Amino acid sequence: MPKHLKLINRRLRHAWFTPISWRRRLAFYGGALIVGLVAVGFAMAADQAQQLNQQLFARYPWLPFVMTPTLFALAAWLATRFSPGSQGSGIPHSIAGRHLRDSGLGQDLLTARVAFGKILLTLLGLLAGASIGREGPTVLVGASIMMVAAGLAGLKRERGFILAGAAAGIAAAFNTPLAGLVFAIEELARAYEQRTSGLVLLAVILAGIVSIATVGYYDYFGRSTVTLDLHNGWLPVIILGVFCGFLGGLFARLVLWTSRRLGRWFGKDLLHHPASFAAACGLVVAVAGYLTHGAVFGTGYAAARSALEGSGLIDWDFALAKWVVTAASTISGIPGGLLAPSLSVGAGIGSALSSLFVGTPAGSSAMLGMVAYFVGVTQAPITGFVLVMEMTGNHSMMVPLMAATMLGLGTSKLVCRVPLYHGLAMQIIHARRAAVRAASAASAAGADAGDKSAAPPNASS
Q1: Which keywords appear in this protein's UniProt record, sorted alphabetically (predicted)?
Q2: CA 137, CA 379: separation in Å to the nearest integer?
Q3: 21-40 average pLDDT score
Q4: Would you state the torsion angle of the CA atoms of residues 216, 217, 219, 224, taken in this order, to the nearest 10 degrees?
């Protein structure tokens, strides 16, 4: 046998038939399947938590004034005390964990403990009526599960495993495999990585198989059949693209600005007493929920689907109140994502403005508002229109969605120059590095003090 054929045969045997390679492969397959199972179970539990919240509100309309601030405070305290790193969406922590893996500063960002706390406390927040979603937390949970699998298998390409787990989480959470792939490349990696693309694709496939086997094929918001006449329908595309992109960018800027300023305003009081601030945010959510008859509690899925189907126009009070409670829930420090609430806000704005566009279906306006606002918040344009297109099963709106996406992105960048998730991730990274530098400086100062105390006294004294 020629030498080059022997070399190829040896490499194939090493890649496919050694015990180490099979152990690593099985760990990856098992991790991706577990991500799918956990994502489906998380989705079911989240739906139950929201239903219980609605049932309690329907029976006791005054209850949110007590329950919502209390559970907000409890979630913030539990997150700080028992599951540090589980606060917020989870996507910034996944990005930070991927950047900090090589330096060793992000070892505790993506762990089984953080994932477990993220799931339980997100469910607690949904029970409280917080305007949060499970999709962002599912990204962190998926990345954490794959990191555990990578550790068991002794794999070194941990950064690729984070991408694979995050993509599988999005794909299983929304039942949108293509959006999961695009999200991993555009939002987490910010570049196409050929070495990890196979891992990401395989993880999405395996998680998708579990999701389909468990709950079957479905479109997240149902199948939409609305269309938009391109000859006469550019006015809603332009107006909704610009306006919703502006509001999305304003939301992102508010969250980034508040997250930077809170520490300066409250100092160590906020660090040691996060429950008080969370309770105040919970009170804001309770008041808004009471005034809107509970419509703004939770993800806002029902209102968004109604807007997309055109079965009922959404008033401005829902859209504005949902914007406020999503901001309050996000800055409160409790675990929970903002992907699904952002989609609801955008759909609400589009539906509220649909009466201005004569001859344009209300569902089309809701879709345009949804994608423009979502992109305005995240500044992830490809993920935005692919996600909305897959969630509605509507391909006839592709070109208008792309146009609204680009208008929303451009307007958002005028308001907020830094993408929300990456801005929050950089705050985590800078805080970790600053803590290491402070610890090193303190250690060096202690060593210098010890040397001085051990030195012999001056002979002239």
Answers
A1: Chloride, Chloride channel, Ion channel, Ion transport, Membrane, Transmembrane, Transmembrane helix, Transport
A2: 19
A3: 83
A4: -130
